[in-house]
UniProtKB/TrEMBL annotation:
One Pfam family of this chain: 3-dmu-9_3-mt
The PhnB-like domain, residue ranges: 3-132
Gene3D superfamilies: 2,3-Dihydroxybiphenyl 1,2-Dioxygenase, domain 1 (3.10.180.10)
UniProt protein name: PhnB-like domain-containing protein
Length: 136
C-alpha cells in the first residue's frame, strides 16, 4: 500500500510544476491536459477550466510521487497538512527553504531543534504548507 498526495492548483498547476522543478528539482513524469482526455468530462465536473489546463500530472521528488491537477476542486484550500521534505545537510535545508518560500510566507525560520540539525516551516506561494527537515 502506498499513499500519495494529490494537489489541486485551481488553474495554476503548470506554474506550480515549473516552480517546484526550480525550487526542489521536481521532475514532471506525466502530464495530460483536459483536451487530451479520450472523452471530455462534463464541464460541471471540472469547474471552469480550459482545455489547456492540466487534468493530471505526476511530479517526482526523489523517491516520492506527488499528483497534480487544475482539476475538479474549484474551491479547495491546502489546509490540515504539510508536505515534509527531508534533506541531508543544514545548508541544503536553508537552500530548499529559501527556494520554496519565494513569494510565500515563512512560518518558522530554519533553525536547530532538539530533533533536527535544521528545521523550518513555510507556506509557499500556492498555499501549500511545507516542513523542511535535516535530521540529527
Amino acid at each position: 500500500m502506498q499513499v500519495q498526495p494529490y494537489l489541486f492548483f485551481n488553474g495554476r498547476a503548470e506554474e506550480a510544476l515549473a516552480f517546484y522543478a526550480k525550487a526542489i528539482g521536481a521532475e514532471t513524469t506525466f502530464l495530460m491536459r483536459f483536451k487530451d482526455a479520450p472523452e471530455q468530462p462534463p464541464s460541471e465536473e471540472c469547474g471552469n477550466y480550459s482545455p489547456e489546463h492540466i487534468m493530471h500530472a505526476n511530479m517526482q521528488v526523489g523517491p516520492t510521487q506527488v499528483m497534480v491537477s487544475d482539476g475538479a476542486e474549484p474551491n479547495s484550500a491546502f489546509n490540515g497538512f504539510s508536505l515534509a521534505v527531508a534533506v541531508d545537510s543544514p545548508e541544503e535545508a536553508a537552500r530548499v527553504y529559501a527556494a520554496l518560500a519565494e513569494g510565500g510566507q515563512a512560518t518558522m525560520p530554519v533553525q536547530e531543534t532538539f530533533w533536527a540539525r535544521a528545521f523550518g516551516m513555510l507556506t509557499d506561494k500556492f498555499g501549500v504548507s511545507w516542513m523542511v527537515n535535516c535530521e540529527r
